[in-house]
Write a structure and sequence with these properties.
The structure is a single chain. By secondary structure, the protein is mainly alpha-helical. It is elongated and about 65 Å long. It contains seven helices and no strands. It has two domains: 90 residues, Rna Polymerase Sigma Factor, Chain: A; 75 residues, Arc Repressor Mutant, subunit A, CATH 1.10.10.
């Protein structure tokens, strides 16, 4: 007769003090912090992303053994810095977009024709790229950061960086050739 050995069950491991403290901190501060960042960004979705990223950075720091003196103040400062960085990136992207539009604008028909030709050349060169390369290049041209591009195209940040480098390397001679015409 076969004997049945008793099964041993283990109790679930209790959360670490840092995890419990992080959970409490999140519950206590997420709503107020999100309202504050929404006021700064005027974009509730972006504010949620920023606050989530700030808490994620705190969780990573705690997991690595780094504990700020005041976690609530630390998260608020990180969220503020992320909101400011986001605004700076958007401002820079808008500035460059305005410059591109200004180059093609004006009363001079020659400038308008050159801008139209340049736009057509860029479209032609973009058509030579794979869909992932095209999406990455377009997102990068709009000021989207590498990690966010990686998330959107489903690749790692390092693979995305390599993809962008290859795409730009392939685009450059084609654009120079188009400008020479």
């Amino acid at each position: 007769m076969a004997s049945i050995s008793p099964t041993t069950t283990t109790a679930p491991t209790p959360p670490s003090p840092d995890a419990a403290a992080l959970d409490d901190l999140y519950r206590d501060h997420v709503a107020g912090l999100t309202r504050w960042i929404t006021g700064m960004t005027r974009d509730p979705a972006a504010a949620e992303d920023i606050v989530g990223e700030a808490f994620l950075r705190l969780a990573r720091g705690l997991a690595a053994g780094r504990r700020p003196d005041s976690p609530a103040a630390w998260v608020a400062q990180v969220a503020r810095n992320l909101a400011i960085s986001r605004a700076r990136r958007a401002s820079t992207a808008a500035k460059y977009a305005t410059r591109l539009v200004d180059r093609g604008a004006g009363d001079d028909p020659a400038i308008a024709a050159l801008a139209s030709e340049r736009s057509a050349a860029v479209q032609t060169v973009l058509a030579t790229l794979t869909p992932a390369e095209r999406m990455a290049v377009v997102l990068a041209s709009q000021g989207v950061r590498g990690p966010e591009i990686a998330d959107r195209i489903g690749r790692t940040p390092l693979a995305t960086r390599a993809l962008l480098c290859r795409a730009r390397r392939r685009m450059r001679p084609l654009l120079v050739e188009a400008d020479a015409r």
